[in-house]
Amino acid sequence: MSFANITKEQKQLVLGQLTAIKSDFASRGFFPGTSGNLSMRVGPYSQEEFYFAVTASGKDKSKSTPEDFLFVDRNGKPCESTSLKPSAETVIHNEIYRLTGCGAIFHIHSVYNSLVSEWFWERRAVPVKGVELIKGLNIWEEDAAIDIPILSNFADVPRIVPEIPERLNSRIPGILLRNHGIYAWGRDAFEAKRHLEAFEFLFEYVYRWELLRNRK
């Protein structure tokens, strides 16, 4: 299916959900400065062809305007005539969609996710064990133990992309960029939001636990 076959109603549904998520996350301080980005797939998916709406570059995400999002193809190129530029990190969204077939990807910056990504950098993963909110990632084992992958962070964003397939764990719906932030995804906006909230709880828990543990 080409982008021309995607209906106006399908596009509006995606934009409406992204606008609501953006407003919610902005109210929680998830987008300091103009940081962070959101995307959501529209229409059918195949590795060879898919389309998604993504946040436009440089926008104040505490405000809502008709130019907050644009639609791009699997290469991150705009699907419609526009003066907007997609987020510089759209290439990361492209790769996650390609590898996972997910329906939505949300990326935020927080103090806790940045701190734990640096603290556990040499390990290349944030270890979490036995915390209830692991279930928020669809992992239901008793006393579950997980490792949340950490990727290198480069100012030249395309340099990050080759590391994604190497570090991505199909069990964990998220990746951390070192000193940067979390990318969380899901089948739809609801699941991606739940995963992101679970990750953020786990990062704060791990940070606070490390402080307590190292006082002994």
Features:
Methylthioribulose-1-phosphate dehydratase, 5 helices, L-fuculose-1-phosphate Aldolase, 23% strand, alpha+beta, Aldolase_II/adducin_N, lyase, metal-binding
Description:
It is a single chain. 32% of the residues lie in helices and 23% in strands. It has 216 residues and is of the alpha+beta class. The protein has a single domain (3-213), classed as L-fuculose-1-phosphate Aldolase. Strands 3-2-1-4-8-7-6-5 form an 8-stranded mixed beta sheet, with helices on both faces. A hairpin with a 2-residue loop joins β1 (37-46) and β2 (49-55). The model has no long low-confidence stretch (mean pLDDT 94). It comes from Cohnella luojiensis. Pathway: Amino-acid biosynthesis; L-methionine biosynthesis via salvage pathway; L-methionine from S-methyl-5-thio-alpha-D-ribose 1-phosphate: step 2/6.
Largest sheet: 8 strands, mixed
Number of strands: 8
CATH architecture: 3-Layer(aba) Sandwich
Q: Which parts are unreliable, with pLDDT below 50 for 5 consecutive residues or more? A: none
Task: Give the overall average pLDDT.
Answer: 94
Please state how the strands of the largest beta sheet are arranged side by side: 3-2-1-4-8-7-6-5
Order of helices and strands: HEEEHEHEEHEEH
- What count of structural domains? 1
State the helical fraction: 25-40%
Termini gap = 60 Å
Tally of helical segments: 5
Shape: globular
Function: Catalyzes the dehydration of methylthioribulose-1-phosphate (MTRu-1-P) into 2,3-diketo-5-methylthiopentyl-1-phosphate (DK-MTP-1-P).
Pfam family, one: Aldolase_II
InterPro entries: Aldolase_II/adducin_N, Aldolase_II/adducin_N_sf, MethylthioRu-1-P_deHdtase_MtnB
Catalytic activity: 5-(methylsulfanyl)-D-ribulose 1-phosphate = 5-methylsulfanyl-2,3-dioxopentyl phosphate + H2O
